[in-house]
Amino acid sequence: MFTKILIANRGEIAVRIIRTCREMGIQTVALYQSPDRDSLHVRMADECVLLDAPDGFLDQDAILQIAVEKRVDALHPGVGFLTERDDFIARCEQAGIKFIGPPARIVSHMRHKLEVVESASRAGFPTVPRSDCVVNEKDIAAVGKEAQRLGYPVIVKSCRGGRGRGSRLVMTPDRLGSAVRRAQAEALTIYGDRQVYLEKAILPAHQIGVQILADNQGKMIHLGEREGSLLSGNQKIVEEAPSPCLSSALREEIWRAALELAALFEFENVGTVEFLLDERGNFFFTEIKPRIQIEHSLSEMLSRLDIVKEQIRLAAGEPIGMTQSDVHLLGWAMQCRISAEDPRKQYLPSPGYLQSLHLPGGSDVRVDTYLFNGCVVPIEYDPLIAKLLVWGKDRESCRLRLSRALDETRFLGISTNLSLVRRAVEQPPFVAGNYSTESSPALSVEDTADELLLRDLAIAAAIAYWRRRSSFQPELPDRLLSGWHRDSRRLPS
Amino acid sequence: MFTKILIANRGEIAVRIIRTCREMGIQTVALYQSPDRDSLHVRMADECVLLDAPDGFLDQDAILQIAVEKRVDALHPGVGFLTERDDFIARCEQAGIKFIGPPARIVSHMRHKLEVVESASRAGFPTVPRSDCVVNEKDIAAVGKEAQRLGYPVIVKSCRGGRGRGSRLVMTPDRLGSAVRRAQAEALTIYGDRQVYLEKAILPAHQIGVQILADNQGKMIHLGEREGSLLSGNQKIVEEAPSPCLSSALREEIWRAALELAALFEFENVGTVEFLLDERGNFFFTEIKPRIQIEHSLSEMLSRLDIVKEQIRLAAGEPIGMTQSDVHLLGWAMQCRISAEDPRKQYLPSPGYLQSLHLPGGSDVRVDTYLFNGCVVPIEYDPLIAKLLVWGKDRESCRLRLSRALDETRFLGISTNLSLVRRAVEQPPFVAGNYSTESSPALSVEDTADELLLRDLAIAAAIAYWRRRSSFQPELPDRLLSGWHRDSRRLPS
Amino acid sequence: MKKLTVQVDGGLFEIGLGIQPAHAADLVVEVDGRKIHVQSPNGSARDAASEWFIIEGRPVEISIDEGFGWIETRWGTFPLRILDQTRASAPPHVGDGRVKAPIPGQVTHVAVRQGEDVHAGQPLLVLEAMKMENEIRAPKPGTVALVNVKPGQRVALNELLLEIQ
Amino acid sequence: MKKLTVQVDGGLFEIGLGIQPAHAADLVVEVDGRKIHVQSPNGSARDAASEWFIIEGRPVEISIDEGFGWIETRWGTFPLRILDQTRASAPPHVGDGRVKAPIPGQVTHVAVRQGEDVHAGQPLLVLEAMKMENEIRAPKPGTVALVNVKPGQRVALNELLLEIQ
């Protein structure tokens, strides 16, 4: 087993990886850039190094140099950043530092998403209907025919692309020509290659991912599926496992397809086989994510396995050491992504000083966060500040526990999407387990309430207003600097 | 099902019960005395009432009156306080308010501990060897003979007592006479009855409790055993489930005995059948606790059942609705009791203003607490401030997770027994799972460390000292009152 | 006695205060002429952003922004309007057409030019912060009177971006 | 330069400070003549009870009591002694025989009388607080010179309970 791991990431995922390393008795080295110097992952690691590089967590040279200097045996990329950079993985391999993730050749293969889909298609797996690569926008009649064959809506996609950049959704035939022209121009700019193709748009859809663990002897197991269809903008906000929209027969079929697809690509380490599901129960393979995902924790709650621990073990060359029948997926899990965004400013990012936080507790509640009282949420990174997860023995008890946990949560000093998440969990399609990518919760900030509650809130608001406007100010600094005063609980009246 | 429950308790257990009620859609009414007016359970409840009564949470009249006025259907006593007062339970029953716990007749029976033990003994269950009640201390020769028969050490106990008051441990024959005299005098003062008896002292021992759920149709299941042998003073500090000292055969035997004993006493609702286990694997029934215990949460982690939810369901007259074979006890759980006690003052209670707290997060960690940033730990109540639990797939991974979680925990402003707990978890007998009631961790506050760590700590201490003594003070109030300043992360150097 | 008109969501209430000092732990307020007892356990607590009260035995925890425009609670977030009848000053006026940076960040794209007519909600520019591209839209219809920033420019919180007349 | 002698558990160190201001984010200290680089990310943070440093790349989070008698860390709690060589004043003297209430509470039992000889560690009285009976023991051997409290009496923090000479 490894003795020291460099964590090439920050925020909640770095904290989460350090926790597992500590439980495994593995030393950790944290990286930080200057805005993050006071961040929790830095304090929790055994060692920390300033990442003083222009490209930050994407700077391969700087990160490799630190890895070598700190004499780590392995490097964990977390999520995002260098997770899918096969060139970096190859450099780690050359430097004798184990990259915790699949080998470079697999990641390199997975990055070519169209090739992956075509291979899967040739092997007989269902994939989203698509055209061949279109090279010439002048023959718009031929393109139109192809779109007609697939059926509208269609998506124009770059043959080289990934991550959806340069993709365009076309709802009706009259918009096709300009969409193709623009997509080609964009593809040329971004990827240096103007080839695009058409894909049928699955709308509404369900986004289903099956968690896979695979060792280097070809043994594989899955930890069931997750559904991440509830979006706000393009961000997943509430995810759950299992998926509420699958029959047991369909679920078994998707699990089997996921394992077979992972085997087809000789997948190793930890990844997710992703599918789109349409309203009629057809599923289509889309890609394999060769890394842990933010929502991996959902599968941890159902299987009671630590996926990062398994990932480290697998990267160290250990066998899986269990069979599919040893995996028991029990109950239901839901996860919310809490972001520093201001609902009163159209969900703009809301970084800043976190005066105080109160996290939910009790049974089967899990919070992964890098926040602490008095920390600063830096403006330089993405706004995800916490993952809140709960488990329940069935979907409804899980959902009620999530509501309860959200009610307990408080962030003072920064704005968050907490009220949006709370509303998402209460909206009828989600309550019924009958939602899709088209069921975004209302982004409005307003809720409804009965008259008595409104009156109570008006009273509370009036007193709060009066107090803040009144010339008498409570003596805050004094109390803070001198610790506890019994009397301070009540001021002279 | 009930629509509104009065919670006749405070602190972490009140918070814990409110959480379950909210998840069940049941309204809650909280009680508070004036020192507790800002406490978390009050804020979390749907309604709250000042308990303005001289006897506080023991004041039956006042609490019943509030229950009636607030039109609750049921009352949850929590742990301690009115849990084992059969007179109160009878009054609730008369008032048409369901007491969440066993019926009065069962609690009344359980309170007569000696009778319970004698009944069990007559029914053939092993109990701790004891003498008949001794009425006369003058015949010290007969008492001595009885002690000789049981074998030293022995305990002199009141025939009326419970909770250990008036009990005296006698290690050698020469101390027997005076111990009997003093125990009789105390028994007379406390219970109005000078009758005492001798019981063999099981030293060292293991304290084992089996969690029982029983409905009012005579159906019963158990949720396995817990071990609570690691004491500091007379307080349990670290508990675990399952017990590490039982063979599977012995475990099965104790489970069977627990169910049979519960059946013997026609037990209903939720309770714990308690045993002492000696070093040779003999177990002795001691009592049935007719209520939830602080450590019930351990069994929740293994069974993934919510015991308070089951308790409320059972009190409402619902059947258990599952059989023993539906209960799957998986993995290992450990619980620490965090108390506001000052290790630097011989573990005296340490109430006060909690400036800031940081609780551990991540997978399979549970915290039950009534603390929040800026709260006051009142001097009027017991010093238990938080329960910290973790789950692991086996004992060692559970223990390592507990260590990790303890490392993350911070309380600023009050002193706690955290360092004692951390040491208890690291001491060799606990690591080996080979400890007993005689394995109390050292109460000393000192730990050991290597030279480099000591040097780092000396540097840190020197800078901290220098800063606090230096005339330049950071401008705290400004920063606090005006929110986030980007610059405040770094002072001019 | 101080009088406030408070609108929370659809509810409009006349509230009288000032029978006791503002920071008293026990208060009586008048709502539409009726006396209501309110307790304020943490009247002196440090967290000015979160306050909690016991109103006729119901615990109510709230959080209100600096501008008194929103009230957040565990029952949801509601728009708030407070009219102070004993103060001359109204709440600060917004919507004068000056578009300011709602967060610090970097301008990556400016979509309009001086003199251009815009409709309410039309994208004006893109401000990058926290790895997100945030579209700033026109708060009202009008003509762009001033464009104060260029693509690539870093802006501070509340810095003037452009003005609509 | 400021010089401190710091004893942590068994380790004794001579530490030189003052090359930069106390609250600088980057510090150099001298330990037994060697220069050590220390970073102090939250040099200005509010939680005076907990401080954290990066010492040669190792994160070190500590909590020190007001009297500088103990240092708490995630590696354990250690006794601390700081000798300030540039200050005349020594740390406050303890152990003068005056036994003060370590917590507020109620005296439930007094076990000694004035004039009685006691040995170190002998129970003197019982102070009830937080539902616990807390035994207060003699800090050193001597004669009870004064008993200042009676059973049933409530005492405040640091109130004189009795005196041993």
Write a brief caption for the model.
The complex is a heterotetramer, with two copies of chain A (493 residues) and two copies of chain C (165 residues). By secondary structure, chain A is of the alpha+beta class.
Can you put this structure into words, describing what you see?
The complex is a heterotetramer, with two copies of chain A (493 residues) and two copies of chain C (165 residues). In chain A, α4 runs antiparallel to α5 (104-111). Chain A has 16 helices and 22 strands. Chain A has helices spanning 11-24, 40-44, 60-69, 86-94, 104-111, 113-122, 140-150, 176-191, 248-264, 296-303, 307-315, 395-408, 418-426, 428-431, 451-469, 476-481, and strands at residues 4-7, 27-32, 47-50, 74-76, 98-99, 154-158, 168-170, 196-200, 206-214, 220-232, 235-241, 269-277, 283-289, 332-339, 341-342, 348-349, 352-353, 356-358, 365-369, 376-377, 384-392, 410-412. The relative contact order of chain A is 0.11. Chain A is an alpha+beta fold and 493 residues long. Chain A is globular. The longest helix of chain A has 19 residues, at 451-469. In chain A, strands 13-12-9-10-11-14-21-19 form an eight-stranded antiparallel sheet, with helices on both faces. Chain A has three domains: 4-100, Rossmann fold, CATH 3.40.50; 129-200, ATP-grasp fold, A domain (Dna Ligase, domain 1), CATH 3.30.1490.20; 205-443, ATP-grasp fold, B domain (D-amino Acid Aminotransferase, Chain A, domain 1, 2-Layer Sandwich). In chain A, β4 (74-76), α4 (86-94) and β5 (98-99) form a beta-alpha-beta unit. With 165 residues, chain C is mainly β. Chain C has two domains: 2-83, Glycoprotein, Type 4 Pilin (2-Layer Sandwich), CATH 3.30.700; 98-164, OB fold (Dihydrolipoamide Acetyltransferase, E2P). Chain C has no helices and 16 strands. Chain C has strands spanning 2-8, 11-17, 26-31, 34-39, 50-55, 58-64, 70-73, 76-84, 98-100, 105-110, 117-118, 123-129, 132-137, 142-147, 154-155, 160-164. In chain C, the strands form three sheets. An eight-stranded antiparallel barrel of chain C has the order 1-2-3-4-5-6-7-8. In chain C, strands 9-16-14-11 form a four-stranded antiparallel sheet, with no helix packed on it. In chain C, strands 13-12-10-15 form a four-stranded antiparallel sheet, with no helix packed on it. In chain C, β3 (26-31) and β4 (34-39) form a beta hairpin. Chain C is elongated, with a radius of gyration of 21 Å. Chains in contact: A-B, A-C, A-D, B-C, B-D.
